[in-house]
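Hey,

The postdoc asked me to send both predictions to you directly instead of through the lab channel. I've kept everything plain text so nothing gets mangled by the mail client. Protein one:
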Amino acid sequence: MIQPKRITDNFLSLAAIDSPSYGERKMADRLTAALKELGLSVEEDGAAEALRGNAGNLFARLPGTGTPLLFTGHMDTVEPSAGKKPQLHPDGTVTSDGTTVLGADDLAGVTILLEALASIREDGLPHPPLEILFSVAEEPYDRGSEVFDFGKIRSREAYVLDLNGKVGGAAYAAPSICSFTVTIGGKSSHAGFAPEKGVHAIAAAARAIDKLKMGCVDGETTLNVGMIAGGTATNIVPDLCTVKGELRSYSHAKAEALLDSVAGTFSRAAVSLGASCKMESRFGCRAYEISRSEPVARRYADACEKAGVQPDFFRTFGGSDANQLNQHGIRSLVISSAMYLPHTCREYTRVADMAKMAEIVRTMMLHA
């Protein structure tokens, strides 16, 4: 059976561990021990070296009979996260002390998975082969899963417990997300005595930004320039300007076309003022869409209904490890992990919601 007391103890213990992106060592050690205690074999990959972090992705297996299924969560949390102090309230809500995030994103998901596995083990129930992936550095757009060797995974379907919102939620579609950095090189000169001898790098950047449509480019695509830096003094024509932004789209083709357009706009603006321009970009997430008729979606809907929960399928405009899984041919659904207000110091979870999601996950683990 699902045990709320065990869920509470596990979550409070995990949330108290500092586990920032690229610094998940203590969390990885704790989860390795927990998985082994539950009878799973565990291996850690070389993501630490590849990402210059201190821990790798954890991949665990529990033998069974039938078609294998994969369940995933991530070990890292966003900032501010140092010295988290989870607070359990009388109604079963858990918050931080208000000075840090709680880390329910994604430790609530991790706790749910551990509880489902524990309940199956103690009840001695037959199950299909189960695979568990706990990734590092998910928050900076799937850095950990990006370097994972997907050839190790036998499952062709997966559930990613990493979704904000009520129990029963499931994201069947997510966007491509591309981060970009534009570096514009100009020429410095004295802004008072010889401004005409300089090439104003910030002016070139501003000219480009003014020509770009920010916000909603169309009904499924957005663009944002979020950071701009340049110059060394008020009396010097700036010879360098760096611009950072991102774009998202439910259509990967549209995302690529928009990236080309952004690059061209900055290049033309730079050339028009005699400046140079260099652009670097990275697609951390690639768009995908799951049909409600696919087995991975039907299994989730059935498990929700058995738990007395109405399944709620919708599109998300955020990224997760599901983007990487789907890109590698593993049909994956992002499902609720009982976290609310993530990426803020007001983040919280509820023990009852984690217990209900553990019940749903357990049902899926038993009926592949």
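Protein two:
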Amino acid sequence: MARITPCLENGKTAFVDILEKEEIGFGSTEFIVLSGKPEKTTNEFVFYLSISPKLRSEAIQSMSGTSGRQRIQTDLFRSKEIAIPKIFEQKAVVKILSDLDSKIELNNQTNRTLEQIAQTLFKHWFVDFEFPNVEGKPYKSSGGKMIESGLGLVPEGWKVRSLDQIADFLNGLALQKYPPAGEDFLPVIKIRELRQGVTVDSDKADISIPDEYIVEDGDVLFSWSGSLEVVIWCGGPGALNQHLFKITSKEYPKWFFYQWTKYHLTEFQLIAEGKATTMGHIQRHHLTEAKILVPQRAILEKINKIMAPKFELLVNNKIEIRNLTQIRDSLLPKLMSGKIRVS
């Protein structure tokens, strides 16, 4: 369990299950090692106890030290008393929570595989030009006609375009100007939310912001300053903050502009790193300078039949991960406190 700020607040806790039999590991002084006591608690139960909101909140409140380097003191664990169920009930609690975690991890693994497959297919078709020709053979290696372009030799009939020609990049609003007018609100999606999702600490915005600035599941978001990232958002409805682009297109499928933006991401990150500012960024002209290739409509439709279902499955998996996580997080404090009893 991480004991230093901001790692503790960010929920950095891990269950160690990677060691071989009789193998031991050595750790940093910046985390606390917790384990169960024979016949009293199991390691798995202690893990879920360590990530329960109540214990984590008390741990955060107990931190001491200089600003930015505050740490939990181990005295917290010596002085705190908690109710512990019997071993058989601990195992029942762990079974419920671990089953949810297993499904979440399975979906994460599936999505990593889907991302790898999509990137491989994209490279095969749009970088190596080995898409199937009319005879079903790899185009370039089978002697397909190549012509000169601004990007070198490309398949005949393909067009060179700018990234901002195939998609619209909508920059977010300064949402501090749109505070909630009532109890209803939209969570503000900033760079932090791209990594962590929406939390209780996320800012809030009024629900009456213009529709185009409302983010929905499946939208492609691109943080153009700070830590440049391209993500498929599946964290529920939210409000688009400045420093984020929402990428859309009326002509091309999402996977197409998502993959091309990712293709240029390393280049964009290098541009941002070169800025002599505290927060590197790119500018709109960099989107214009980023060139991409657009094939004939028939070829695009053919690969869309392959890529679109994978993109849809990835989105559905991410939404299910969010829902399962919410269920787990709502059950966890009730199970750990004994408000819900299982056996």
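Summary for protein two, as requested: The chain is about 40% helix and 15% strand.

Thanks,
C.
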